[in-house]
Write a structure and sequence with these properties.
Length: 457
């Protein structure tokens, strides 16, 4: 059934679009399952459509793993005499800078504690260590020791921003006020020490793509094997040191959506390396604001509304709707790969589906009202088949008529006046019905129309 254009219909479409867009934009912000779906759609693009990149050879990661701990006299805190020796070796190798993503919040052996500080001060290149505070887990005594011990050492927040919905690390932690001054995040502080300008607010982490399935984004080696590495592999490099242990300092990343938890959970030092690489290269993973989200949702809701009220078969409408959603999804992937812009996908899709649903419900209501009007107006004068045909095609109802070949029947009851004088009203009605009823049935059964029956004129 087609719909006649009217101001009322246009107003209804506008209301449907506004209502569905409002719901779609609000849903991921207030309905947890919608937020998870939006995050999942974003993370899948990061997992499967992150463009391959050359290995970042300016950053080398040295990991403290279980094999490393097995060589040390105790597991925690990390032996600071061992770390001092690593720094001495890195200085000899000509490392450009060192980031140690480890907290120094309690004393160990006094001579080893001092040896580490002496090694840091003698490096001659930037060295940044991890830092946190009472708000994120330290006791007062741990925090006081950290402040005193690292008084002359550059220390940045090791904190990571985790999404409150699913715990995934998608945004960098830029830093915050601490004891009356602003303290940068760990990677930001190291980048600043290397002459780069860190972001002054949280931005989306642009995780570096792997060159191929077998090659990590950054060269990584166990720290206890460092002496076996050629010095050229470390010369001029930014060396990141941190733990890679099964049950400590591991965090969910967007890669978990497509690769699973085991492969998509990274040690903190690896995430900090991605952030450092992003700042050093000036890359920006752009997130969309609510204005762009609303514009996309309005566009899809408008398309859905046009489809619902278009003069097309239902199958064509469904096909065009599927094509629209497929094109939108492909476009979102293309925008991500080309411009690093992660467009919202769930809220616009919700707007499209909701507009289809509300539009269809309103269209069904209009159809019902129009059919009832046509049946009420013409069922007494036109054959049921003709009424149904007009109800299916109300656009055929138009002023001016149309040219057709028709068969017209005029008939008369001979001597009706004389006959009527022989009966009272009841008797005459019964007699006339014996003629008019079968005559009417024959006409209507042949899809004819009774114009009128009349008495003496």
């Amino acid at each position: 059934m087609a719909f006649r254009k009217s101001g009322k219909l246009a107003a209804a479409q506008a209301v449907i679009i506004a209502a569905t867009v409002l719901f779609a934009v609000a849903a991921p912000r207030f309905i947890n399952v919608m937020a998870v779906a939006e995050n999942w759609a974003s993370d899948l693009r990061v997992t499967f459509f992150n463009p391959p990149a050359k290995a970042q050879n300016d950053i080398v990661v040295l990991t403290i793993n279980e094999d490393t701990l097995a060589l040390l006299p105790y597991r925690s805190p990390i032996d600071r005499g061992f770390l001092a020796g690593v720094l001495i070796d890195l200085k000899a190798a000509g490392a450009r800078a060192v980031g140690i993503d480890i907290l120094f919040d309690q004393p160990t052996e006094p001579e080893k504690d001092q040896a580490f500080l002496d090694a840091v001060k003698s490096m001659g290149v930037p060295v940044v260590v991890g830092w946190t505070d009472v708000e994120t887990g330290l006791t007062e005594s741990q925090y006081e020791f950290q402040k005193v011990y690292l008084k002359d050492v550059a220390a940045g927040y090791s904190n990571l921003f985790k999404d409150t919905v699913d715990g995934t690390v998608r945004n960098l932690f830029p830093g915050r006020e601490n004891d009356g001054k602003y303290r940068l995040g760990f990677a930001s502080m190291l980048a600043e020490a290397l002459g780069h300008e860190p972001p002054d607010q949280s931005i989306r982490i642009d995780y570096r793509g792997r060159p191929d399935a077998e090659t990590p984004a950054f060269p990584a080696f166990p720290i206890h094997a460092m002496k076996a590495l050629p010095q050229a592999w470390l010369a001029g490099k930014v060396v990141m040191i941190g733990a890679d242990l099964p049950f400590g300092d591991r965090h969910r990343t967007p890669f978990a959506a497509g690769m699973g938890i085991a492969k998509g959970t990274f040690p903190g030092v690896a995430i900090q390396s991605h952030i450092l690489s992003q700042i050093m290269e000036g890359r920006t993973a752009k997130g969309t604001n609510v204005t762009i989200e609303i514009m996309i949702a309005v566009t899809l809701a408008s398309i859905a509304s046009l489809l619902v009220f278009s003069q097309q078969p239902a199958a064509a409408k469904y096909a065009e709707g599927l094509i629209t959603l497929t094109a939108f999804s492909a476009g979102a992937v293309w925008v991500f790969t080309e411009y690093r812009l992660n467009l919202p996908m769930v809220s616009p899709t919700i707007a499209f589906g909701a507009a289809l649903g509300l539009g269809s419900a309103y269209a069904a209501r209009l159809q019902k009202a129009e059919r009832e009007f046509i049946h009420g107006a013409f069922s007494h004068y036109v054959s049921p088949a003709m009424v149904e045909r007009m109800a299916e095609n109300p656009e055929s109802l138009k002023l001016g008529g149309e040219k057709r070949d028709l068969t017209l029947l005029f008939c008369d009851v001979r001597g009706f006046t004389t006959i009527s004088e022989q009966f009272d009203a009841v008797g005459l009605t019964a007699l006339i019905n014996k003629l008019l009823t079968p005559l009417t049935n024959v006409i209507l059964s042949n899809q004819g129309t009774v114009d009128k029956y009349m008495g003496d004129c």
